[in-house]
Each structure stands twice: as C-alpha cells, then as structure tokens.
Amino acid sequence: MSLDFYQDRLHPCSYLDDKQARNIYPDPLRAMSNKLYGQLIQHGFRRSGEHVYRPFCPTCSACVPVRIKVQDFQPNRSQKRSLKRNQHVTINVHPADFNEAHYELYCRYLQSRHPGGGMDHPTPHSYQQFLTSSWSDTGFVEFFDKDQLIAVAVTDFVDCAASAFYTFFEPEMAERSLGTLAVLKQVELAKKQGLQHLYLGYWIEASPKMNYKTRFDALQYFNGDWHDFDKKL
Questions:
Q1: pLDDT at 233
Q2: Could you tell me the CA-to-CA distances from 154 to 13, 59, 81, 144 in Å, in that order?
Q3: Radius of gyration of the chain, Cα coordinates, nearest whole angstrom
Q4: What average pLDDT does this structure show over 115-122?
Q5: What is the dihedral of CA 39, 40, 42, 48, to 10 degrees?
Q6: Which residues of 209-226 are buried (b: 16+ CB within 10 A; e: fewer)?
Q7: Helices (DSSP H) in the chain: which residue ranges?
Q8: Treating both helix axes as pointing N-terminal to C-terminal, what angle do 178-192 and 77-85 enclose, rounded to 10 degrees?
Q9: pLDDT by residue (tens digit) across 82-104?
Q10: Tell me, what's the pLDDT at 118?
C-alpha cells in the first residue's frame, strides 16, 4: 500500500528557541487506523490527538525518535530507588474517556509545570482533543497512592508495541520522580503483554524537557533504521 505525505509551512519550534520547524503528515484523505499508526510509528511518526506527524526540518535533525526494547530493559540504580520509594503505588488501566479526576489533575499539572506556555488553561474539549483520538487504542494508566490519584500515563497500544504518549502527575509530589515511575511501569506493562517496544517519542539533546530519555536502558534510536543508542550520535 502506497501512502502520500505532505509537509506544512515553517513555524516556531516548540522545543528549541530561535529554531524553525516543519512536519510531514500522512495523506489526510486516507483514513487513519490503529494498524496504520502501528506501521508509521516504526518510522519515527507520532500522534497528537487525531493527527499523525513526524518532524521534517530542513536544517535541523535534533528530534530523534527513540524506543525501549522492553524485554532487554533493566532499571538502573536510581530507577530501582524510584520503584522502591513508590512500591505501595498501584496502577489501573482506565478507558480513554473523559474522567473528571483525570482532568483536574491535568489542569494542576499544566498550571505548575507549563505556566504561560499556552497549555496552562485547558478546557475539557482541548484536553480530550490533545490526549485522545477516535482511531487509536489508548489507555489511561492510573497511579494511585492508596485512594489518591497521583499520576496518569496516556499510553497508545499498537501491534507488538506501546507508546508513552503523555504523562501528568501531582505537581506537589515532584520529589517522588513520578515521571520516571510512569515510564518504568509502562515498560512493565508492555513486558507483561509480550510487546517488543515502548516508544518514547523524540529525544532532543539540547532540550532539558526531552533529553531525560537517555537515562533508560535498552534504548534505540531511529535514523532511517533502528539502532542501539550511542550517545555519540
């Protein structure tokens, strides 16, 4: 099956100051499906709401798709401490529908972590428009400390893989390393389901918000094909 791709116009980069960005998108007239997305994600594509895209910048290649080989993954010393510190936390996979508790946690997270960034005043509509889609197999992985919801990891599931789409957590619990915990638990979930990879989106070395991904073991990067990660990219 052939598939045409289209590129958008240059626009300010969301990750790197003073940079211009451009994306490519699969043919918008071709209906997207979870199966097709499972093929595109293997070539560095990512979704945002209903839309699937990949950075295609003319003078920059800073956005590097990365994924974890879940069957080979071993937590490092710091990640083991995070698991031990949060050993009483329980998880539950919730359907990707609107949930008031999720939404309130999402609002608190954005107001604390991204003030003034354009996302810190979400509405129920913008929340659902960003995190969910009509065609994806998406679950909201809930993290509970006793009866308190402390984090949600939005996870897409495709053939043989899972994709860590977005995580939000209680901002007052930043010292609990809940973002790291969310990745570790998604690795565990993918491993239990017999999946091969957990996709982490894009690694950007110069972006503090995106370069943490190299802390995870068994990492691969995409550059026309998938390779075991080497920091000397």
A1: 46
A2: 24, 32, 23, 15
A3: 17
A4: 66
A5: -130
A6: ebeebeebebbbbbeeeb
A7: 34-40, 77-85, 100-113, 124-131, 178-192
A8: 90
A9: 999 999 999 999 999 999 999 99
A10: 56
